[in-house]
Write a structure and sequence with these properties.
The protein has about 280 residues and is mainly α. It contains twelve helices and no strands.
Length: about 280
């Protein structure tokens, strides 16, 4: 089960991304950050793909699906940055997890994937563990939560679309296109954001952005390779949500956020059980 190893890599790197994005976006513009991340990620992924042997994904054969790649990831990236600017990481990631439900339902409907009882139970364990950690009773309806919800829905649909296209595409080359299309689309819709790109040339900002982009590209390549190696959309999406627990643990270690630690540990164990059942 080689794909599971790639999924684990994607989980760890995605957890770092959640922390880094929250730190960087505090005083930044979500639109310009989204564009720069997508375009710089495309360049970095293209370098990896060229080193490996770039294979052009079948854009002409599946124009609608690749249009969805650009649209869904443009919206998901932009609105996730908007959400992280307005609400705390734990609030954002729990709402992002709703994308799992969207991905599972969509994969059953559009990809005819089988939803076994074991996978369903595993998914429910992960979702319950997330609920334990994040105290949903404290949530309120606001712009940040709505932005996160939009990002979650688009992300879940994008995962199903990726699963279909990776039947005909090489993962690393697909990653480059997967970053490029949303970046171009966002730049076309928000051309004035290009005026703010100079701020990314400052040494400290440039270093932080490079580290974030590199982590994001590695995470995307690992995620797409897991799908290429056989992971189903109904498997990979809920497994990725276990990274929420890792994000919480990283916050405990590095940010000293140790409130409700017993609940977090219990949720972590429950998540591990859920992941093992899904795989």
């Amino acid at each position: 089960m080689v794909w599971f190893i790639y999924a684990i890599i994607a989980i760890f790197t995605a957890s770092l991304i959640n922390i880094l994005r929250r730190v960087l976006i505090k005083d930044g513009d979500p639109i310009s950050y989204s564009i720069v991340i997508q375009l710089s990620g495309a360049l970095l992924a293209l370098l990896f793909a060229t080193w490996k042997g770039f294979e052009m994904p079948p854009i002409r054969e599946y124009p609608l699906n690749f249009a969805l790649v650009g649209i869904l990831y443009a919206i998901s990236t932009l609105f996730s940055f908007k959400a992280l600017k307005l609400i705390e990481v734990f609030q954002a990631v729990i709402i992002f997890s709703f994308g799992t439900v969207v991905a599972i339902i969509s994969s059953v409907v559009f990809l005819k994937e089988a939803l076994t009882i074991q996978r369903l139970i595993g998914t429910l364990l992960i979702i319950i563990s997330i609920f334990l950690v994040t105290k949903l009773k404290n949530f309120s309806v606001n712009r940040g939560n709505l932005y996160a919800l939009v990002a979650a829905v688009c992300g879940g649909l994008a995962t199903v679309n990726d699963t279909y296209l990776l039947r005909f595409s090489e993962a690393v080359s697909y990653t480059a296109i997967g970053f490029l299309l949303p970046g171009i689309l966002l730049l076309l819709f928000y051309p004035r954001s290009a005026k703010k790109f100079n701020s990314f040339l400052k040494p400290k900002v440039a270093i932080n952005m490079f580290f974030l982009t590199l982590t994001w590209v590695i995470s995307a390549i690992a995620f797409y390779t897991a799908i290429e190696k056989g992971a189903l959309a109904s498997q990979i999406s809920p497994i990725m949500q276990s990274g929420i627990i890792l994000t919480m643990l990283l916050a405990v270690i590095f940010l000293k956020e140790r409130d409700n630690l017993p609940i977090k540990i219990a949720a972590g164990l429950m998540t591990i059980m859920g992941v093992m059942m899904i795989k």
